[in-house]
Amino acid sequence: MTTEVQAALVQLEVDGQTVAVPEGSTLLEAIRALGKDVPTLCYHPVLEPIGVCRICVVEVEGSRTLVPACIRKVEPGMRVRTDTPRVRLSRRMVAELLQSSVDTSLAPDVQRYAEEYGARPERWARFRPEGPPRPRAPKVDNELYVRDLDRCILCYRCVRVCGEEVQNSFAIAVAGRGLEARIDPGFDLPLPESACVFCGNCVAVCPTEALVPKTQFEMRRAGTWDETRQRVVTTVCPYCGVGCNLELHVQDDRIVKVTAPPDDPITRGFLCIKGRFGWTYVHAGVDPKPEMKTP
Ligand code: SF4
Ligand code: SF4
Ligand code: FES
Q1: How far is CA 76 from CA 23, 31, 66, 183, 244, in A?
Q2: For residue 32, what are the CA distances in angstroms to 3, 37, 75, 152, 198?
C-alpha cells in the first residue's frame, strides 16, 4: 500500500483574495491558482525558475523591494499586490530596456507587455549618444538553425535547456558582459565545431527568434513566412520506437517547421535532431519553391 504525503497548504492574500497553495509553491503559482496572471519572459514551465528578467515583479507587503513572482516562494500570511503603479512602472522599464537594446520585433510577448505597460524605449536613447550598436550579422554556420543574436534578451532559457535540465550537452553559455553578452558555444566557435548535437531544443524555448530554424529564418528573409497560412498536423515521429508526438507546421502543402507539443508528458516539447530537423526527405525530389531557396 502506498501512502501519499500531501504538502501542507500555505494561505496568503493576492490582490485582496485569499488563496491556499501547497508549501514550496511560488507566488506565480499562487497567482495563477486564482485565475490571474503576471507577465513572464525568462520563466518556462518545464525549467527551474532563475528570476533574471524581472518582468514578473509584484509588491509584497513589508518587502522593501519588488519581488519576482516566478521564483519567490509563498509564505503564510503574505499580502501580495500584482498590479500597482510601482509594479507597472517597473515592468514598463524592463520592457523599455529590452526594446532599447535588442530587436524585439519577433518577440510577441515582449511586444505585448511593452504595449500593455506603455513602454517608450526611445527614452533611453540619450544614454547612448553614439547611437544604437552596430547590428551583428546573424550567425548562419549550419544547415539546421541560425543564431540571430541581436534578438537575444538573455533569458537563459536556451542555456538551461542545453545543460542539465534537459539535454545535458552543455554546448552553449552566455559569453561577454553588458551589451556584448551573447549566447556562444565558446571562443566564438561555429556550432558544428562545438559540443552541439543539433537537437534544436534551445530553439524550441527561445521566445524571440534569436535562435530560429534555418527554414523559418530564410522564409522570413524572403518575406514568405506567414503563420496565418500555416496549419499544424500532429503525427508520430517515424524514426525510432520511442514514438514522440510531432507537430508539423505546414504552409502551402509543405512542411516548414517541426515542433513537439509542450504539454506532452513524455517529450515535454523536446526532441532529438531527427524528429526536429529530419523532415526534408518528405519533399525530396521536389524542386524547392524559389522563395524557399537561400537568398
Ligand atoms: S541544439 Fe541542442 S545541443 Fe545544440 S546548443 Fe541547442 S540545446 Fe544544446
Ligand atoms: S537565445 Fe533566445 S532563449 Fe537564449 S537567452 Fe537569448 S532570447 Fe533567451
Ligand atoms: S519571469 Fe520572473 S524574473 Fe523572469
Answers
A1: 9, 14, 18, 39, 41
A2: 28, 6, 16, 27, 34
Angle at 96 between CA 207 and CA 68, to 5 degrees: 65
Tens digits of per-residue pLDDT, 177-223? 887 889 999 999 999 999 999 999 999 999 999 999 999 999 999 99
205-230: b (≥16 Cβ within 10 Å) or e: bbbbbbbbbbbbbbbeeeebbeeeee
CA-proximal residue: ligand 1, atom 4 (nearest): 196
Q: Which residues approach ligand 1 with their CB closer than 6 A?
A: 161-162, 167, 169, 171-172, 196-202
Ligand 2 neighbours by CB, cut-off 6 Å: 152-158, 183, 205-206, 208, 210-211
Rounded CA-CA distance 72/171 in Å is: 29
Angle between helices 108-116 and 85-101 (to 10 degrees): 140
pLDDT digits (tens, 9 = 90+) for 213-233: 999 999 999 999 999 999 999
Residue bearing cell 518587502: 63
CB of 104 closer than 8 Å to CB of 208 = yes
Task: Tell me how far apart the alpha carbons of residues 112 and 122 are, in angstroms, rounded to a whole number.
Answer: 17
Q: Which atom of ligand 2 is nearest to the CA of 172?
A: 4
DSSP code, position 139? B
> Helix (H, G, I), strand (E, B), or coil: what is residue 248?
strand
- Give residue 186 CA to ligand 1 midpoint distance, Å: 13
Cell, residue 65:
523591494
- Per-residue pLDDT, 292: 53
How confident is the model over 118-162, as pLDDT tens digits?
Answer: 999 999 877 777 766 677 899 999 999 999 999 999 999 999 999
Distance CA 21, CA 29 (A): 8
